[in-house]
Structure formats: structure tokens, C-alpha cells
Design a protein that fits this description.
The structure holds two protein chains of two kinds. Chain A is an alpha+beta fold. In chain A, 46% of the residues are buried. The chains are: A alpha+beta, B mainly alpha.
């Protein structure tokens, strides 16, 4: 053997040994009494500006930095005064405008020690509606805000004036992240304009070059990645692009005095680190290696069949499955010829086995639902609603009675329509990339086939899927909705004029009138009655077969105690964690 | 040589420009509306019958759509049917734009289509009592892109027959139906239109206060609103490190392996070894990576290497500890990426060497007592260096494409991941910049390979 060839591998081996001999680096240790929590982040946020950046990941991080006057409490799932001192006071005026009054906690402080005042609220609201800022996705929510009235002599009390009644007005008045004016607008560029002027696109405002420069700067990465300040318990320590986002607990945070007021005021970890790991398998390996302390939104099968059955993980990790405020449904396009008839839709509903979907594909991490009202509000659900019954005999009998019979023995029902023999062949639209939904579609296809209905599953990329939905180019569709703990505005999902969510063509003049009445009804009890009628109408119309809700899947290290889990997204609050001795 | 390089560079630039135009066109015709994700939907304006809010929404949408070049036509010249309005690109949002285009195609009458569009805008925001239920519902649905143009006459007839319309609305419906029936002769020839303001021109040389790529302006990313150059620079180092080490492992490693396999090709166990290397070669990259992770980066295996991420230089740690950390984070992704390519190199080199071992000049040299090492160096290697150099040139884009998956699996922040995200989100400025970067690197690699080949082999002349 040539001695020169052998020299290279020997040298390499020596170098490797030398490196190995140095050993693994010393683990980083926190100061005594302090501890750090590391959580997986499945995607990197596009930025941490709650107004300009619209991806879902930013909320998961931002909730520890920025607080709002009002929020939804993790435990009670009701509106909760966070930076506000108490619940909003609502007055409906004789001119039909609605006045919502809130008062801030005088203890609330920014990082420079100055108090959070109405000036900051006003500034934050202006950011939500200012032309030139990329606030389009949230601006619509403030469309009814006419003005903000200050209370003379009180820098903490303010009244938001809504030009017309809207049941979510109290929430909108307090549902905005508070930005410190001293940091974001030290020159007071927006002080020259009132909320009213901004809402009305005052020509002077539109021509103001200082405002244009301000808006451009606000849209830039400087206020998405570098300057991110709020009155929450944590501050952005560093953001290593593509790797991690690290938050550090503020020293002497004002909220420490309110620890017993709710989970949001608990902020025990000194650092929270979000590790950006896109691939779930990589994240699981990182979990097993101890590089991260927890992860959420684990795949159903992986969670139940792999992680929960792993003895080593069972020993070191807790598994949490809080309810998610979300549901899935099978939509039947009532605008299509074959599905125009309500009785046909009712017949097809008997061929959908939601129980099998939950047990087979969700591994029991979900339950049947009767309507669109979220699980945390059972008192709002109509007692007339029934769970969709799976009964193939009934499906067949009903289809027979409607004239759908298999005249040629090919297993597919047919009927003469407009002088032509038409087979009962339907397309089922599913979005690509969601393996569980794709399998759900196959289960439905299988059951429908037994009832003599031919289903063709069409899997489309998300953009094409949404386009097909909007244009109504489908017969059946598998879809889902994520809600909030509060009453959701039914317009988008159920109004006949909404193409943004009412894909199945549900509705008529009666249901539309219920929806419009619901939106302007300020009395919660009366609103519930209207909602029940709407739910019954949805059930009667039968263009939506409600399948199931879902549970969140969270894995977290047993090194820590007291993780707050909640139905409210994102499903957990890391601030309440305490390290076990 | 210089003529060759100049010609090749010119051809490359023209190709890249055409590719950029094609990419812009593809992003434009892809389904969905990326602008709506940023600009939101007008649902609230519809729900509240708030015309001013809808106008504000349109203004906002128009501004956001500039980031995707959707506010102007695609190219300098467009060929469109004569019945399309000139202002079509100016109509926002995408659902409204497409609905109007479909209406024009259905009616073949621009005036009628614009007339219907204006009335829909009117009816959508009228109070409930001032307009019929059907007309308002139809208007809202049409503005959102939820009603096909062909279905409109039937809806107008329904409104006329079944609802009590006021005289103005009834007259409007009758006029629309009458004009709809009278389809004018649209003519056979499409119209060629010159578009002074167009997306391609804006990107290339800039307009409206913005610069173009000819002045070095590569724009801002659509989602993060960050300079494209700095985003690429952040990601480039990781990919460079990964690709460098993968090439360093694959090329010399594969070559040495191939030499060794050729030298020992008669051994009995060589067939088994070849089978194993073939199996490893055909195994997908993600399978290899997953196996390596499972057995070498988790407690279930050896847990010797890092399961994800990139190492950082920690000044509080020892120099060699930092080196070891770097090694721990790099070795699994490098092996996953280099394995297939290295085995390919090995197989190729082995085949080339075996073919040359049979050549008469080699056998003659060996029979004259020239040492085998000298025969290899002076006779065989010079013979295979031209295809070998070409193979290295082709290895670079292969490594680059393989890095996409490796960066995803190992959570490394590289250009592959960036390209994937830019494609998914249709971030056009970023996508174009990455395509240009990739094209330039491929061009440089191939051209360099050609030049080196020409220099090493005088028989090859570059023209």
C-alpha cells in the first residue's frame, strides 16, 4: 500500500481525536434562582410588528412583549382587563352611536419608567387606521370608530365613540396592542391629527410628507425586528434570524404586583427562547435531545402513536390536550344543480361518519359538534340542534325517494334531469398539504360509495383551493374554521353577500336579517336568542355538515410546573412556568 | 476566447431576462391573491355597507399590490381582446379585476361591462331598504368574485320578476338585459397595446421614483419589507459553508473511493460493496438525513452530533470547544448532502479508470516496468481530467438543489430555504434576485469549467 495514501487518513483521525478530546462545551448555566425556557417555533415570524406583519407566528412571541387594554383571559375565556383597570362601560346614545369607556391602570409602565396613558392609546389607535401604514388587515375592524374622547384631568380614562351599534364595540375599544408613543413617535408627527381626521382621510393628512415618512419608517424592518417595545413582562433580547428569538424578563416589571389577577401577570422564567425548527421530526429529535423544553401543535398521529407511547418521553414530559376553539365541516355547495335541493343534501348527510373520522384520523383528540358555536359557550347553543346521524340505510332510502336510483347497475345512482340521465357524481375539494384532511376525504368517499354516490377527491394547492372556494367551483368541500373565545361575527361565514367565508351558498333573506340584527344587538341575552335562531336555520338548510372540534397537542418538559394551557390560542402561556427544585 | 466569453455572457443575460419575465408571468397567473393576505378583505365594508371604507380598502390594496407588480401590466407590449378596457390592471382587488375581465369576455362590450360594474358598486353599499335583496346580494357576491358573469342575466330576471324594484333599478336591469342580448361584433383581431408603465420595466430600470436592477436596486421583500440584498446575505453564508464542505467531501472523497474500487475491482467482496454503494446512492436525501439524525443525534442512538441548527462562536468557551461545536452541527448535514454525489463520483471515476486500464498504451507502459503510480499520474489521469472537470462543474448546482431539503431538515438558514419560502409566498423581488444569483453561479461554474478544460486540453477550442 502506498504510504502517502495512508498518511492522510491517519492525520485526519488524529485531528478528529484532538477535537473529540476537548469534549463537549460546558452547558450554559443561568444565575442562581433564574431559569430559561425553550419552546419550538414551527416558522419564523416575518416580523414582530402587530400591525404590519400578518403571519400567525408573531402573535405567539408578541403576547409576552405587548399588552392590550383588554384581552381574553386564558382560564375564564372572558374579556379580561389587562392594562385597563376594569371592564369597559358601554353607553348607547340617542343618535345610535355607542360610547365605550375604559380606564388604564396607573401602575402600568413603559421601559423608561413613564406611565402608560391615554396618549399612548390614542397613538396606538391612530397606527391601526393611518393611511400609508400596512394596516389593511386590521383597519377594517376599526371602521366604525368615529373618535376618541379624553377625560379632562384624567390621563388614564378615555371613551371610544363608535358611529353605529356593533356588538363587538367594547372588545374593539380595548383590543389593540399598546405602542409607546415616546419610542415610536418621539417627534409627535401624529399629534397634529385627530382620529376623526385620520378616519376621514383628511387631505391635509394625505399631503403631509412627515406623515408619509413616518408611515414608511413604521412599515420598515426597524420597527419589526429592532425596535419592539410594549408594556408586557418581557423584552426582545435578541433575534438571530432563522435560528431563535430570545425574550428577557424585565427587571421590576409593573405587573409583578398583580400576579394573582390572572395568568398573564405571571412571568416567572427569566428568559424565553423560541427555537425556529420547521420540520416536525427534527423538532422531536431536538425534544428528545433536550435542546428544547416543549412543542405544540404536534401532528395527531405523532402525538398519540409515537410520543405518548415513548416510555422515555413519558418519564420526562407532560402531555397536554386542551380544546381548540376550532371546528371542521363538510360543505355542500347549494348553488350547484345536483345539490340545490335541500332534501338531497339531507340525504347525503346521512352518509358522513364523523365518529369514524375522529377515532381513525384524530385518534380521539376531538369530539362531535352540532353547530358553529365554540365549545366554551354551551349556553349559546340551541337545544334544537342535533348531531348529524350516520345511517347508510337512511341515506339510500332518502335518495331512492328523491328518484336517485342505480338504473344501470354500475353502483352509481342516476336520475333524469332536464331530459338527460345524470349520475350522482360529485367532486370533493381538499387543500393539499393537510394529510389528515386528505385521508378524511377518502373516508367520506368510501362511505358515499356505499350509498351509491360517486365522489372524486380533488386536492388543490392552497391558492387554487381558495380560488375554487371563492368561485364556487366545487360540489363538496372539507374545510375548517378557527374562532375566538368571544362571539364571532356571523357575517363572514353565513351572510349570503359574503364570498369570503360563505362558500356553500347558505342563506336567504331571513338568515341575512338575523345576522344583521345580531351584529347591532348590544344586549347579550337578546343576541343569544338571535344566534339560536340562526343556528337552527343553518341546520335546516343543511349545506354544512358539522364534523368535529379539535384538541391542541402540547408536549412540555417535567422540569417545569404549572404550564397554563388554554382553549384560547396559542393554547399555552409560558410565563406561569416554575422550575422544579 | 474573449469572443466566446462575450457571446456566452450575452446569451446568458438574455436568457436570464426572459426567465425573469416568465417568472413574473407565472406569479401573476398563479391562483390566489397574495395581496389580500396583507391588505385584508373588504368583508367589513360590505357588512356595514360602508362605501368610504371600501374606497379606503381599494386605495390600500392598490398600494400593497405594487409590491407584487400587480398594479401595472406585465410587459411593454400586451396582446388583449379588443373588448377589454385599457384600465383593467387598475381595477382592484384581484377578485374585482377578474370578475370584470370575465364580464367583458361574456358581453364583448366594454361600455356595458363598466356600466354593470358601476351599478354593482352602487348597490353593494346602499342601505337595505333602498335596493332589492337580490340586487344587493348579487352585487356583493360579484365584487368578491363569487358570481360567474354568465349567471348575471338570470339574476337580473329574477330581481325583475320576483321583487319590487324601484323604477330606477328596474330600468337599469331592463337596459342591461337588452344590451346583453345585443352582442356587438367584437372583431377577430386582438389589440396590441403599448404599456409604458409595466411590471418588467419597473423591475428592470425603475420608474415612479423607484430604481431598477440596472442601478443595483433589488427591492424589498414583500412580507418582511427588508432589503433583498441583506436578506440574501444573511442566508448565503450558511449555504456556502454547507456546499463548500459537501463538495470538499464529495469530490476528493468520491474520487479516492473510485480509485480504490478500480484498483480492487477483482476482489470478491467488491460486488457487495458496489451493491451497497448503489443502494446508498439511490436512497433519497431525506431518508439518509433522517437515519443519521435518529442514530447519531438522539438519545435513542449515540447523541454525538447536534440534531439541528448552526453553531455559534461563544467567546466564553474554549477555542477547541467552539471548533467541536461547529463540527457537531456540520457533520450530519454535510454527510447527508455529500453522500449521493460522492458515490456518484466514485462510480464514474471507477468506470473511467477501469476503461483506461484496458487501453493498450496503459498495458504497454505497465509491461515496460513503469510503476503503476506513474502510469496513473502521467497517462490515465490526464486522459480523464476533461470529463472530471465537467463533472465538478455540474456538481455545484446539484449540491445547491440538494441543500433545500437538508436546510429544512436540519433547520439551517440557507438560500435553499429562502428560495422555497419566496416561491410559496410569491415574494417576487426576492424570487427574481435568487433566480439571478443561482443563474449567475451556474453560469460562472460552467464557464469556468469550460475555460479550464480548454486550457488543459489544447485540442479543445472555445468558439
Amino acid at each position: 500500500m502506498n504510504i502517502r495514501i495512508t498518511r492522510l487518513p491517519v492525520l485526519s483521525l488524529l485531528l478528529l481525536l484532538l477535537l473529540t478530546a476537548c469534549g463537549a462545551p460546558k452547558p450554559k448555566e443561568s444565575a442562581p434562582g433564574k431559569f430559561e425556557v425553550t419552546m419550538r417555533l414551527p416558522a419564523e415570524p416575518t416580523g414582530l410588528n402587530s400591525i404590519v406583519n400578518r403571519d400567525g407566528m408573531k402573535g405567539l412571541v408578541l403576547q409576552y412583549i405587548m399588552f392590550q387594554p383588554l384581552t381574553i383571559d386564558n382560564e375564564s375565556l372572558n374579556i379580561f382587563p389587562m392594562v385597563a383597570k376594569n371592564m369597559p362601560i358601554v353607553h348607547t346614545m340617542p343618535d345610535s352611536s355607542v360610547h365605550v369607556t375604559l380606564e388604564l391602570r396607573p401602575e402600568a409602565r413603559w421601559d423608561n419608567g413613564t406611565p402608560v396613558t391615554v396618549a399612548d392609546v390614542l397613538f396606538s389607535l391612530k397606527l391601526c387606521i393611518l393611511p400609508g401604514i400596512s394596516n389593511g388587515a386590521i383597519k377594517g375592524g376599526f371602521a366604525d370608530v368615529e373618535d376618541v374622547l379624553l377625560t379632562p384631568g384624567n390621563d388614564y380614562k378615555y371613551t371610544v365613540v363608535f358611529k353605529r351599534p356593533y356588538y363587538l364595540a367594547p372588545v374593539i375599544a380595548g383590543d389593540m396592542n399598546l405602542f409607546p408613543k415616546y419610542k415610536y413617535d418621539p417627534a409627535g408627527v401624529l399629534d397634529a391629527y385627530t382620529v376623526k381626521q385620520i378616519q376621514q382621510n383628511d387631505p391635509k393628512l394625505l399631503a403631509d410628507s412627515a406623515v408619509k415618512r413616518f408611515a414608511e419608517a413604521f412599515n420598515s424592518e426597524k420597527y419589526s425586528r429592532e425596535i419592539v417595545e410594549g408594556c408586557g413582562p418581557y423584552t426582545l433580547e435578541k433575534w438571530e434570524a432563522g435560528k431563535r428569538i430570545v425574550l428577557r424578563k424585565k427587571e421590576n416589571w409593573w405587573g409583578n404586583a398583580f400576579t394573582n389577577n390572572g395568568s398573564f401577570f405571571k412571568a416567572y422564567p427569566d428568559k424565553i427562547s423560541f427555537e425556529i425548527i420547521k420540520d416536525e421530526n427534527t423538532a422531536i429529535n431536538a425534544l428528545k435531545a433536550g435542546s428544547i423544553d416543549g412543542m405544540a401543535s404536534v401532528d395527531f398521529k405523532t402525538f398519540t402513536q409515537t410520543l405518548q407511547k415513548d416510555a422515555a418521553l413519558q418519564q420526562d414530559y407532560n402531555f397536554y390536550t386542551p380544546d381548540m376553539l376550532a371546528f371542521e365541516y363538510l360543505g355542500l355547495n347549494a348553488r350547484r344543480n345536483l345539490l340545490k335541493d335541500r332534501e338531497t343534501r339531507r340525504a347525503l348527510a346521512y352518509a358522513v361518519d364523523a365518529d369514524r373520522i375522529i377515532s381513525t384520523l384524530m385518534y380521539g383528540l376531538g369530539k362531535r359538534i352540532k353547530g358553529h358555536i365554540m365549545q366554551n359557550r354551551p349556553e349559546e347553543q340551541s337545544a334544537q340542534l342535533l348531531l348529524n346521524e350516520f345511517n347508510l340505510q337512511k341515506a339510500s332510502a332518502r335518495l331512492d325517494s328523491l328518484g336517485w336510483k342505480d338504473s344501470n347497475g354500475n353502483g352509481i345512482r342516476d336520475k333524469m334531469l332536464n331530459g338527460r340521465k345524470t349520475e350522482l357524481k360529485l367532486s370533493l375539494l381538499v387543500n393539499a398539504g393537510n394529510e389528515r384532511r386528505e385521508k378524511t376525504a377518502l373516508l367520506i368517499q368510501d362511505d358515499m360509495k356505499k350509498a351509491g354516490v360517486d365522489i372524486k377527491v380533488e386536492t388543490l394547492e392552497m391558492g387554487a383551493y381558495i380560488e375554487a372556494l371563492t368561485k364556487g367551483n366545487f360540489d363538496l368541500v372539507l374545510s375548517g374554521t378557527v374562532g375566538s373565545a368571544l362571539e364571532t361575527d356571523p357575517y363572514q361565514l353565513w351572510h349570503t353577500g359574503s364570498a369570503g367565508g360563505n362558500f356553500t351558498g347558505f342563506g336567504n333573506a331571513y338568515s341575512d336579517s338575523l345576522i344583521m340584527a345580531f351584529r347591532v344587538e348590544m344586549d347579550p341575552e337578546r343576541r343569544i336568542q338571535i344566534s339560536k335562531k340562526l343556528q337552527e336555520e343553518i341546520q335546516w338548510f343543511a349545506s354544512v355538515i358539522f364534523l368535529n372540534d379539535m384538541k391542541e397537542r402540547i408536549v412540555f418538559s417535567k422540569k417545569f410546573d404549572d404550564l397554563t394551557v388554554s382553549e384560547q390560542r396559542p393554547g399555552f402561556w409560558l410565563g406561569s412556568l416554575r422550575k422544579k427544585p | 476566447m474573449w469572443k466566446y466569453l462575450a457571446g456566452r455572457t450575452l446569451g446568458f443575460l438574455i436568457t436570464l431576462l426572459l426567465l425573469s419575465l416568465l417568472l413574473m408571468g407565472l406569479v401573476r397567473v398563479a391562483p390566489g391573491d397574495p395581496v389580500q393576505e396583507r391588505a385584508g378583505t373588504p368583508e367589513r365594508s360590505f357588512a356595514d355597507a360602508d362605501r368610504q371604507a371600501y374606497r379606503n380598502y381599494l386605495e390600500n390594496y392598490r398600494r400593497e399590490s405594487a409590491a407584487w407588480f400587480l398594479d401595472v401590466p406585465l410587459f411593454y407590449v400586451s396582446l388583449q381582446p379588443s373588448f377589454y378596457p385599457d384600465t383593467l390592471p387598475q381595477v382592484f382587488p384581484l377578485s374585482h379585476r377578474r370578475a370584470l375581465a370575465a364580464l367583458c369576455a361574456e358581453t364583448k362590450n366594454i361600455q356595458l361591462s363598466l356600466y354593470i360594474s358601476e351599478h354593482f358598486m352602487e348597490w353593494a353599499f346602499c342601505p337595505d331598504t333602498a335596493v332589492s335583496y337580490t340586487l344587493r346580494k348579487t352585487a356583493l357576491s360579484w365584487l368578491s368574485g363569487g358570481t360567474e358573469a354568465g349567471a348575471l342575466p338570470a339574476l337580473f330576471r329574477t330581481a325583475l320578476q320576483q321583487e319590487r324594484l324601484n323604477s330606477a333599478d328596474a330600468g337599469t336591469c331592463r337596459y342591461i338585459l337588452a344590451e346583453w342580448e345585443r352582442r356587438p361584433d367584437a372583431g377577430l383581431w386582438p389589440r396590441v397595446r403599448w404599456n409604458g408603465q409595466n411590471a418588467f420595466g419597473r423591475w428592470l430600470h425603475g420608474s415612479g421614483g423607484r430604481e431598477g436592477i440596472v442601478r443595483g436596486y433589488w427591492g424589498y421583500t414583500a412580507l418582511e419589507n427588508r432589503p433583498v440584498g441583506s436578506v440574501i446575505a444573511e442566508h448565503a453564508w450558511s449555504t456556502f459553508v454547507l456546499a463548500f464542505w459537501a463538495l470538499l467531501l464529495a469530490v476528493p472523497g468520491g474520487t479516492l473511493l473510485g480509485c480504490w474500487m478500480a484498483l480492487h475491482h477483482k476482489r470478491r467482496w467488491m460486488r457487495l460493496l458496489r451493491g451497497i454503494s448503489l443502494l446508498m446512492y439511490v436512497t433519497p436525501v431525506f431518508v439518509t438525513a433522517s437515519f443519521l439524525l435518529l442514530y447519531l443525534a438522539t438519545p435513542e442512538g449515540v447523541a454525538l452530533f447536534a440534531p439541528y441548527g448552526e453553531a455559534e462562536w461563544d467567546t466564553s468557551q474554549h477555542f477547541f470547544s467552539n471548533l467541536w461545536e461547529g463540527f457537531r452541527h456540520l457533520v450530519l448535514p454535510v454527510i447527508s448532502l455529500a453522500l449521493g454525489l460522492g458515490l456518484f463520483f466514485a462510480a464514474q471515476v471507477r468506470d473511467w479508470l477501469l476503461a483506461r486500464f484496458q487501453k493498450e498504451y496503459v498495458r504497454a507502459a505497465l509491461s515496460r516496468g513503469i510503476p503503476f503510480r506513474q502510469v496513473l499520474r502521467k497517462h490515465i489521469f490526464p486522459d480523464i481530467r476533461v470529463p472530471f472537470i465537467s463533472m465538478i462543474g455540474q456538481a455545484v448546482p446539484e449540491i445547491a438543489s440538494g441543500s433545500v431539503l437538508i436546510e429544512y431538515i436540519f433547520a439551517r438558514r440557507g438560500l435553499g430555504q429562502l428560495l422555497l419560502e419566496a416561491s410559496v409566498h410569491r415574494d417576487l423581488y426576492l424570487l427574481l434576485a435568487l433566480v439571478w444569483l443561482s443563474g449567475i453561479l451556474t453560469f460562472a461554474g460552467n464557464t469556468l469549467a469550460d475555460v479550464i478544460t480548454a486550457k488543459t486540453d489544447k485540442r479543445i477550442v472555445l468558439r
